[in-house]
Specification:
By secondary structure, the protein is an all-alpha fold. It has seven helices and no strands. The protein has two domains: 89 residues, Fumarate Reductase Iron-sulfur Protein, Chain B, domain 2, CATH 1.10.1060; 29 residues, no CATH class. The structure holds iron/sulfur cluster (2 copies).
């Protein structure tokens, strides 16, 4: 088993190999227009242990809405897999850091602050 597969499965608690690429997750995702590749393609890359999965924007565009997880016929929590991919990237410590002192927080919608806290803090 490749390192990337092991880490994603350890962090997410999900069995990547249970995905059979039906595409139901991607069909329900509302943010695919902004994504480099679709959610089911992310799963395929991760299944293959392809490290390029860490350099695509899809996990960062993901809004953690859980629609994909609800739609998956195999019960795979795709949302948590996206979260795991973000965590792996963050733990590399070479991710873009945002200086919150330069952001006008009062102008941001509340959901943006919540999402940023989840994605950009460690
Ligand atoms: S819905 Fe589930 S089984 Fe289908 S492609 Fe997405 S993760 Fe894989
Ligand atoms: S949790 Fe992320 S990948 Fe899944 S449907 Fe929502 S935005 Fe798309």
């Amino acid at each position: 088993m490749s390192e990337i597969v092991e880490r994603v499965m350890e962090i997410s608690g999900q069995n990547l190999y249970s995905c059979y690429q039906c595409g139901n997750c991607s069909a329900g995702c509302m943010f695919t227009d902004e994504m480099d590749i679709l959610p089911h393609q992310v799963i395929a890359l991760a299944q293959n242990g392809d490290k390029s999965v860490l350099d695509i924007n899809t996990p960062w565009i993901c809004a953690s809405c859980f629609i994909c997880s609800v739609r998956c016929p195999r019960g795979l929590d795709v949302t948590t897999i996206m979260e795991a991919l973000r965590e792996i990237k963050i733990r590399e410590r070479n991710f873009i850091k945002i200086d919150l002192r330069k952001v006008d927080i009062e102008k941001l919608p509340q959901i943006a602050i919540t999402a940023a806290a989840q994605k950009f803090t460690w």
